[in-house]
Design a protein that fits this description.
Strand content: over 45%
Number of helices: 1
Largest sheet: 10 strands, mixed
Number of strands: 10
Oligomer: single chain
């Protein structure tokens, strides 16, 4: 019998935009070229709640963040680097949505505007 267990790391996620299903998945061609990402990493993420979640460890530490909120808005980060105990926060000001990443010590190491559009 083949071992199908995949190594995971734990990260933190906080959604400050809108209740949404969230996928945080390895940045591989299979995940970039589809809209079928499997089960949500965080289903119906509540606003301003910190989630501590296991994600499949990527071989190159690159991940993709996808979100679809209850108003059918779609969000996509492009490649982001994550390590164990990092925190991802998604925020919105006016029409701009940003992803911020804090390292395990709580220091902001990355922030960028991400794509968002109505489905």
């Amino acid at each position: 019998m083949e071992n199908t267990q995949k190594e995971t790391i734990n990260i933190n996620f906080q959604n400050e935009v809108q209740i949404a299903n969230v996928w945080i998945i390895p940045n591989i061609a299979e995940n970039r070229n589809t809209f079928l990402w499997g089960y949500a990493t965080v289903e119906k993420s509540a606003l301003d709640r910190n989630y501590r979640i296991p994600i499949i460890k990527s071989s190159n530490d690159e991940y993709l963040l996808y979100m679809i909120d209850i108003d059918e808005m779609y969000y996509e980060s492009g490649p982001i680097i994550l390590y164990a105990d990092y925190k991802i926060t998604v925020t919105k000001k006016k029409f701009k949505v940003k992803v911020s990443i804090l390292n395990a010590s709580g220091k902001k190491i990355f922030e960028k505007e991400i794509f968002n559009a109505a489905l």
